[in-house]
Amino acid sequence: MRLVSLSLIVVALAGFAAYVFETEPGWYERLRYPLRYEQIVVGHAENYDLEPHLLAAVIYQESKFDADAVSSSGAVGLMQLLPATAQGIADRTGGTGWHERDLVNPELNVRYGSWYLRHLLDKYGDEELALAAYNAGQANVDRWREQGVGIQFEETRHYVERVQKLKGIYARAYREELAL
């Protein structure tokens, strides 16, 4: 019992120190920001020419690596894909026999999410805009671009900043595991 209490105190102090000094030791980053499904992440990152740490960051932000996650808006799985988006990806990529329940399959969810993220990066040519579109939808980003304004949703600005911060964390904490 004392060991558990002592461990909790050490973790809490590390978290406090990280907050105060804005740096986190590697072991703390790995504890706070887990990596799961690393072979799937690396494989699809390579297949879709994505940075593995960006893909891991999106997955963490979307679902914290919970393959069964379902949002209030109906987004499903690791990369929180809406069924309609996944159906569109399946149609474009030659998927047959696709069913909504497939979105809880980590391999398929990350494959579709990786394809979609690559599509957005190619379309916008900019990581920030691609992440904004992943979060707020392409129609919103297209409208903002037409109007010559930046990201108009506070939630989406926060999402983009958070994913970019997580990308750095995953690059540092999992350098070897996420190497291509």
What can you tell me about this protein's structure?
This protein is mainly alpha-helical and 180 residues long. The protein contains 9 helices and no strands. The chain has helices at 2-21, 26-32, 38-47, 52-63, 83-93, 106-124, 127-136, 138-147, 154-173. α7 packs across α9 (154-173). The chain is globular, with a radius of gyration of 18 Å.
**Which structural class do you get from the secondary structure elements?**
mainly alpha
Total number of beta strands: 0
Strand content: under 5%
C-alpha termini separation: 42 Å
Listing every helix as H and every strand as E from the N terminus to the C terminus, the arrangement reads HHHHHHHHH
Query: Stretches where pLDDT falls below 50 for ≥5 residues?
Result: none
Give helix % range. Answer: 55-70%
Q: What is the arithmetic mean of pLDDT?
A: 91
Compute the gyration radius: what is it?
Answer: 18 Å
Number of helices: 9
Oligomer: single chain
Secondary structure elements and pairings:
Blueprint: H1 2-21, H2 26-32, H3 38-47, H4 52-63, H5 83-93, H6 106-124, H7 127-136, H8 138-147, H9 154-173
Helix pairs in contact: 2-9, 3-6, 4-9, 6-7, 7-8, 7-9
Keyword list:
mainly alpha, 180 residues
Concise account of the structure shown:
The chain has nine helices and no strands. The chain has helices at residues 2-21, 26-32, 38-47, 52-63, 83-93, 106-124, 127-136, 138-147, 154-173.
